[in-house]
Design brief:
about 325 residues; alpha+beta
Amino acid sequence: QAEDGIRDIGVTGSDVCSSDLVPSREQMTVSHTSGQNTNPPILSHFTGSQSMQSLCRFLLLGLFATLFASDLGLAQNAIKRVSSDFLPADAVATAVLNVREAMRSPAVELYPTEVADAWCKQNVGILASDIEQIKVVIGPPESAVAGVIFNLRTDVDVGSLNPRWVDTQQPMDLDGNSVYELAAVPGVVMHVKDPRTILVASENYLSSMLSSEGAELSGLLAKMAAAVPHTAVMTGVIGVEQLRPMLNGIIRSQAEAIPPPLAEFTRIPNLIDAIIFRADPETPEGQFAIVMLAGDESKAAECLRMIKNGLRSEEHTSELQSRQYLV
């Protein structure tokens, strides 16, 4: 169906509405469900520096406990958004995860959440279950910067944080903001914005993140994040348009190693401008969805054709392998 200049392809009931997205971009939804699916067929599926490495490991602190939960039945005007908070104009990707909600979900009943609480308390100084939400922000790849925002449900006591993790005894001034250096991650600092909001970010990216909060929308990612609904425990947005030069460079450098059946897929970065991904296993079908936003209808149709052909090729290959195994 067409609405506000955007075409929805294979959208299920809980998926992103076309009116929630940036107008004039074609939307192609790619969905996957685990187990038996009684819904009508969905067209296609495409699931799919040392300090920077240390920062990436740190970002996993709250993520390992997150398994996703649903937040359904909300009125359109009451739906939460990914939001543009703390998204500088040059940010290329962001993801929001509701940690505490996930830890209380029936989906994690068999997992040792107490162990996660104990580990975080011992190594960081806060309980994993005290983390209400995590928002990850990825800056431009050429700068190798990133940040994560922790929203807590209780006030943080800076003095109780593990000194082996963060040096709270020697606060520093960074562009007028009081920060603490992460002891094990050079070039990364922690800033307590308020008793329940903590930012951990690359030293040269923190000020940009703070200045973008509440500011006028700037940058493609911030504009999309302000419109994209966050109705599950995990919602992410990737700005392919900003990453396109880098992706095409990687593809060119690896061209000889790409198998012929996959060669056509190397055109996808030139057809889409952004990707939205969400996971909601609490729904009966356990749905995981990816929405690709193309620049126009012809690009959306071409991308969809390639993905459908790729899936058919994969099914054919799997069938041949199964027959060989049986023989």
